Amino acid sequence: xxxxxxxxRVDPPDARGRVVxxxxxxxxxxxxxxxxARTITWAREIGARSAAITFDPxxxxxLGRSAPLRILPAESRVELFGELGIEEVFLVEFDTRLAxxxxxxxxxxxxxxxxGVRGVVLGYDxxxxxxxxxxxxxxxxxxxxxxxxVRIVEPVLVGGKPVKSTRxxxxxxxxxxxxxxxxxxxxxxxxGRVVAGAGRGRRIGHPTANxxxxxxxxPPVGVYATRVRLGTFSGRPREAVTNVGRRPxxxxxxxxxxxxxxxxxxxxxxxxxxxxxxxxxxIRGERKFSGPEELAAQIARxxxxxxxxxxxxxx
Length: 315
What we know:
six-stranded antiparallel β-barrel; Elongation Factor Tu (Ef-tu), domain 3
């Protein structure tokens, strides 16, 4: 997979051309996956490259609207595009200049002149261009006039309702991990690099990895059975007990929310490593303990619960 951060850096279009899809794709959920799969299939049918254009930051940030919580950081979106088989990803900064570009101008100057587009695949609710004026029917009319095809992908339904990023966010934030997993096609995750903490976990015999998050859509405060992958979504999975919370035993109940992972059966050094922490089940709510000894005993019980659950699941 090739990654471009600017349309200016791509080589001039050749005879193969491209089939392109575009959007924010936050979460890369089942609906997005269907759009991406249709893009890949069409590109293969006509011998073109498959490409996805995605934006960072979220357009709402630039347009002055309330920005939604991010299900995934941009780097993880790109990773999942590659795993699904997209050949080229354009991770483009969404700025005021792009926001003010009319849809027809974007199609002419970027999709046709820069990328040599032969086909465009859009989700049923995707819009592009200034004022979000470029919907699917608008693109179809442009395609007929300018010589490229357009295919609109109907919504993927779960429980009789369309799979949308808003629905995924709501499921994660409400703690409905089963629904979030169904909508995403994988467990929801916390993603970020391990940073140095206060070292309290190590001192009580349960070292933790403190995750500096790259996004902000998390399940409610509590303790979770998780699966931790090193680096990417395809990394080797390791079971862990993960606290999403404020560490009230040490830091008080008004401290910022943090994510700390106690990996089971692991004794290595993770500082500086990027972790993908997949939420599988909720063990309990966060509690304030009388001191380190009581906290250590509870962590041991949490780990034993998860180990027992894992054995029954695998057996």
